[in-house]
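**User:** Everyone, produce a chain:

**Assistant:**
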Amino acid sequence: MGALDFLSDYFTITTRRKKRKAMQTVEIKVKMDCDGCERRVKNSVSSMKGAKSVVVNRKQSRVTVTGFVEPNKVLNKVKSTGKKAEFWPYVPYNLVAYPYVAQAYDKKAPAGYVKNVVQALPSPNAPDEKLTTLFSDENPNACSIM
C-alpha cells in the first residue's frame, strides 16, 4: 500500500483553494430617511457575494450584514448608493466603565448606546476618587465609624 500512495502523489492534480472568508457580522451606520433609501441600501448590500442576511433598522440608522464578507467592501457598497456611511461607532452603555465621559456620551446615539471610545481610568489622586474610597470596604485605611 505504501508504494501506491507514493506513486499516487506524483499523478494527482492538486489545485490550490482560496481561503474562505470567515463568517462575520458587519454593522454600519447609514442615514436613511424614507422607504426608498432603505430599499436601495438593502438591495445593494444583499446583492453582494457572500452576504447571507441583511437587516436594516431605519430608526437606529443601522445596517447589519451577516455572511462571508469583508467589512470594507460592505462599507464601500453602501457608500456607492450615495449615502453617507461609517462603521457602527456605538456599544451598549452597560459595557462601558464610564458611559457619561465627554467623548463617549453622544446625544445622537440610539437609546442605550454610547460611543465606543478608549476609556481612561480616573487618577487615584482625583478628588472624587478619594471621596468614594474614603468609606470603601476595600480600603484598609478607610474610616471605621460606619
In short: The CA atoms of residues 41 and 81 lie 7 Å apart. Helices lie at 2-11, 35-46, 71-79, 127-134.
